[in-house]
Amino acid sequence: METAIERGLAGVVPFRFACHRCGHCCSGGEGFVWLEEGECERLAAALGLPLAAFVDRHVRRVPDPRDGRPRLALREAADAPSGGRCSLLEGRNTCRAYSARPRHCAEFPYWDGVLRDPAAFEAARATCPGIAVVVPQVVRERAHAELALLYAELGGPRVGAACCLDRGRDELHATGLEADYAAAHARPTGACRLGPGAPIACRIEDGEEGLARVRSIERRTGYPAAYGRLADLLRGRGFALEGGGA
Ligand code: SF4
Ligand code: SF4
Q1: Distance CA 114, CA 58 (A)
Q2: pLDDT tens, 118-174?
Q3: How far apart are CA 198 and CA 187, in angstroms?
Q4: Which residues are paired to 175 by β-bridges?
Q5: CB 25 within 8 Å of CB 125
Q6: Which atom, in ligand 1's list, is nearest to the CA of 43?
Q7: How many Å lie between the centroid of ligand 2 and the Cα of residue 61?
Q8: What are the structural domain ranges in the chain?
Q9: Average confidence (pLDDT) over 214-224
Q10: Nearest ligand to residue 23 Cα
Q11: Segment 79-92 mean pLDDT
Q12: Is residue 89 within 6 Å of ligand 1 at its C-beta?
């Protein structure tokens, strides 16, 4: 019997995906949310709007950059200072029509381009913390061993009255390598939730030099480079963060 390969694992860079509902893909950069037949009606019904009012407020006709053909797409919010924010996004990361969202949104990141084109994959990964690259075991072991040496040199996390994850969850950033290491080696130690798994930002005040050294481990070992909010990265690796902080 043929076994189906997970969609992300069959892509040009193998990855697993778990959406964090962070709204990054709905709120930044250039691009279009294409609408297919029947989706205006579905979205209008989900929002409780007459079709004409929905189209007037939320739909635009734009040329498809691939072939110039006019297509329907969702509008961007008029009040977004830098554009790129979907007009259906509410607050920081809530889609007003999530259960009826267009197929274009529901299928991300399993778009053909992302699965087949390395540059498109990197662009998607830069936006989406839910994409976790699958790292070969030999690369993982080597990179984790080098990171453990670096942590030993830098010393343990600077633990205050509360875990860094609770004090500044939005500000704490790390590489994918640090997050992978944290997910594998975290052990609550006093107030610190990560203990020996804590990233550079929890260990030294000025993390620039530490970050450069992690980048050099990535390059030496071929570890996929990723960087983002530690909380998002950990959540994408199945590390439970609930029970404290924001
Ligand atoms: S329709 Fe919803 S899921 Fe799609 S881009 Fe807009 S806010 Fe995001
Ligand atoms: S950027 Fe990724 S993780 Fe965030 S809402 Fe979009 S698909 Fe989900």
Answers
A1: 26
A2: 788 888 887 888 888 888 899 999 999 999 999 999 888 876 667 777 766 567 888
A3: 9
A4: 227
A5: no
A6: 1
A7: 25
A8: 8-127, 135-236
A9: 92
A10: 2
A11: 80
A12: yes
